Automatic annotation (TrEMBL):
UniProt GO cellular component terms: membrane
Organism of derivation: Candidatus Uhrbacteria bacterium CG_4_9_14_3_um_filter_41_35
Taxonomic lineage of the native organism: Bacteria, Candidatus Uhriibacteriota
Transmembrane segments annotated in the record for this chain: 26-47, 120-140, 168-190, 202-221, 233-251, 257-276, 297-315, 321-339
Name the UniProt record assigns to this protein: Major facilitator superfamily (MFS) profile domain-containing protein
InterPro entries, per database record: MFS, MFS_DHA3_Transporter, MFS_dom, MFS_trans_sf, Sugar_transporter_CS
Length: 352
């Protein structure tokens, strides 16, 4: 339901961002998540919860691509667009600060699984949504994003033309999406696998805290790493690390090797998204930036369905089969869709 809902709302949300403004679209996203929280407070039946879930997915779509577009155009106006990876990494890292400790607090509050305890958590979510509304309402859009009225009717067509004109955009989207899905599969499997190997709940909790802490650190210093080693080195090098981790998962069955290898898959993948974002955004015209990013994100939505269905079928056999499948995808991406430094640094089409 989540994947389908995001897929449905992805492109319209990008068009809204380019047509009516990125700030307004993000405000709509916050309002949707607030309404979702209120629905969650009163929901009791399946269809009520399903509708609440759809609202949350729609809210996610309003921010998908819109945040990146607004950040890049802001940096471009300030003539600091070459720092996109640094600021995008810091923005992404900030989200993970809360993921380090919030789940533990939530588990403590709802330790008895009582309705009153869950209502406290829902109430906190609504309060956080109100705080988010305050901050989003204070954002200022770059001036040149607002002066595009003469281009509004051609936004969607221009976004498709931008993608057709530059094969790098499709290859980058495929590379990023396929490895992200592999990471998502690993994230879905790590808890049941560790439980099957007898790892205690405490150590599974430590796994989550260490992973989120490492992801935060990655994001925070990603701008420095890009300057030091280059964009292609980060993207291709992290993928090599993911491949080696899957080899360890397939051939080495010591519990702590599995523990570390699964963590590495999830940590290394987070290095890639902000670097891809920098390389992709510099090739996209400003007036259709959010729509183009949404169109590229649709690729991930379409890939999700067959890959996750195959994964579900393979998981009935063993987790080893799933990891072999993930390894095949990762190796195929490295061979067929390698990223080159000149492609990530040089702009090959006209960008406003």
């Amino acid at each position: 339901m989540w994947s389908l809902s995001v897929l449905i709302f992805e492109v319209p949300s990008g068009y809204l961002a380019d047509r009516f403004g990125r700030k307004r679209t993000m405000i709509l996203g916050v309002l949707l998540v607030l309404f979702s929280g209120i629905m969650n407070w009163f929901a009791f039946g399946f269809w009520q919860f399903a509708f609440q879930f759809i609202l949350t997915a729609a809210s996610f779509s309003m921010f998908s691509g819109t945040e990146e577009a607004m950040l890049y155009d802001t940096l471009k106006e300030l003539k600091r667009e070459e720092e996109m990876t640094h600021f995008n990494g810091r923005m992404s890292g900030t989200k993970h600060i809360f993921k380090i400790f919030i789940p533990a607090i939530g588990a403590f509050v709802a330790k008895d699984l009582l309705e009153s305890q869950f209502r406290i958590l829902i109430g906190v979510n609504i309060l956080v949504g109100l705080i988010a509304f305050y901050f989003v309402a204070r954002l200022v859009e770059p001036r040149h994003v607002k002066s595009v009225e003469k281009l509004e009717k051609g936004i969607f067509k221009d976004s498709l033309n931008a993608i057709k004109a530059d094969s790098f955009l499709i290859r980058a989207a495929l590379n990023s999406s396929l490895v992200f899905i592999v990471n998502f599969i690993t994230w879905r499997l790590y808890q049941p696998i560790l439980v099957n190997y007898g790892v205690s709940v405490l150590w599974i909790g430590i796994f989550y805290i260490l992973m989120q802490g490492a992801i935060f650190t990655n994001y925070w210093y990603l701008g420095y790493l890009e300057k030091r080693f280059g964009s292609a080195w980060i993207i291709n090098g992290s993928l090599v690390g993911i491949i080696l981790s899957f080899l360890a998962l397939i051939f080495l069955h010591t519990v702590w090797i599995l523990y570390i290898a699964m963590m590495l898959v999830m940590i290394l993948d987070t290095l890639r998204a902000p670097v891809f974002s920098h390389g992709i955004n510099k090739r996209i015209p400003s007036h259709s930036r959010a729509t183009t990013l949404s169109n590229l994100n649709v690729i991930r939505g379409f890939l999700n369905v067959p890959i996750l269905l195959i994964t579900a079928w393979l998981s009935t056999d063993s987790s080893q089969s799933v990891f072999i499948f993930c390894l095949i995808i990762s190796v195929a991406v490295l061979i067929a869709l390698p990223m080159r430094e000149r492609e990530l640094k040089n702009v090959t089409i006209g960008v406003e």
